[in-house]
Amino acid sequence: MPTEKASTAKTSVTRKQLIAALNEDLAREYQAIIAYVNYSQVMKGAEYMNIAAELAVHAGEELAHAITIANQIDYLGGMPCATPKPVKTSEKATDMLRFDLDNENETIRQYRRRVKQCDELGEFATAEHIRDILLQEQDHQIALATALGIDVPDVGIAD
């Protein structure tokens, strides 16, 4: 029977590993919330006022992402983490924007991988939640690259 064969197929990730990876993603979301709140308030200069306001919006979106990821970790039987990844700071607006862009690039790479892992495990609803988050993360990436005056980087997928 095809369904029996499909259910015994070997996957490259276990449910426990997926939970651990999602907790890494959650720590990255916490990092983004803190960075966006901080940067949106300390960024100086008329040329940065529009992006500073946009960063404040991003902070709220990242909070929604964190809640979604924490909910999925709980659904999968895990305990959501409570510690962010380290946040870099700088006096220079361009540094802050570059830090944010680097973090968004890593987040996009990891979430692309996470979608594949969820699909592999048959956790299709979790994959859909992450796809929704990816849409906003890519919008953040575009806004940051535009503010820096660079092309949006092709970040690929995490290995």
Please explain how this structure is put together.
With 159 residues, the protein is mainly alpha-helical. The two termini are 33 Å apart. 32% of the residues are buried. The N terminus is likely disordered.
Helices and strands, with pairings:
Elements: H1 2-7, H2 15-42, H3 49-75, H4 93-121, H5 124-148
Helix pairs in contact: 2-3, 2-4, 3-5, 4-5
What's the gist of this structure?
The protein is mostly helical and 159 residues long. It has helices spanning 2-7, 15-42, 49-75, 93-121, 124-148.
Radius of gyration: 17 Å
Mass-distribution shape: elongated
Q: Give a short account of the largest sheet.
A: none
For the termini, the CA-CA separation is 33 Å
How many helices? The count is: 5
What fraction of the residues are assigned to beta strands by DSSP? under 5%
Classification by helices and strands: mainly alpha
The parts where pLDDT drops under 50 for at least 5 residues are: 1-8
Following the backbone from N to C, one meets helices and strands in this order, namely HHHHH
Keywords:
mainly alpha; disordered N terminus
